Amino acid sequence: MSQALLTGLARTTRPHTALRRFLALDAVVTGTNGIAYAAASGPLGEFLGVDSGVLLELGIFLIVFAAAVGWLASRTQPPATAVKIVVDLNILWAVLSIVALVVWLEPTTAGLLWTPMQAATVGGFAVLQWTALKAVAASR
User: Fold this and answer.
1) pTM value?
2) Backbone dihedral region of 14: left (phi > 0), alpha (psi from -120 to 50 degrees) or beta?
């Protein structure tokens, strides 16, 4: 990803600010998803074709993960190691979402559409965060 594209997406020329914005966006989207999964695990589970207990557990995990990512986003200079962990976990989530879809989920049509879309979104966050992290390192 080019520096110009990263700058345009983040609406800033400052790499640290871009990284913090991508982390914050991840935290908001992930937290919203987690709250929905936890609060409405029954109806959403039925709609997506996913066990409500699994959805509840995923929701709780996502809420905790979002809080940690939000904390990182609030730091003036998020620690590179912590950001790398977030990137790795996002990649793992995206890959496991597709594996789950193929191997053990029996989704409804909505779940069949939602799961890859969610995986692509999380994978996109990983790419943006990794690219911003590299730009931070290059600016030093």
Assistant:
1) 0.89
2) beta
